[in-house]
Amino acid sequence: MKIFVLLTQLGILLTFPALGQTGRAIPVVVKNHRTYITIKTGGLTISDILLDTGLVYDGLMLFDPAYRDSLDMTSAIKVQIGGAGGGQASNAIMIDPAEFSVGEAKMVNHRIIILLGEKSFGSNGITGYSVFGHYITEFDNDKNTMTLYDPDSFEVDDSWTVIPLYFKDNNIPWLDASLATGKEMPVSLSMYIDFAAGDEILLLEKPDQKFILPEEMREVYLGTGLSGDIYGKTGMISKLVIGPFELKNINASFAEARVRSKQKDADAVLGNECLRRFNLIFDYQDKKLYLKPNSHFYQ
Question: Which residues, in sequence order, are CB contacts of 22 under 8 Å at separation 6+?
Answer without folding.
Answer: none
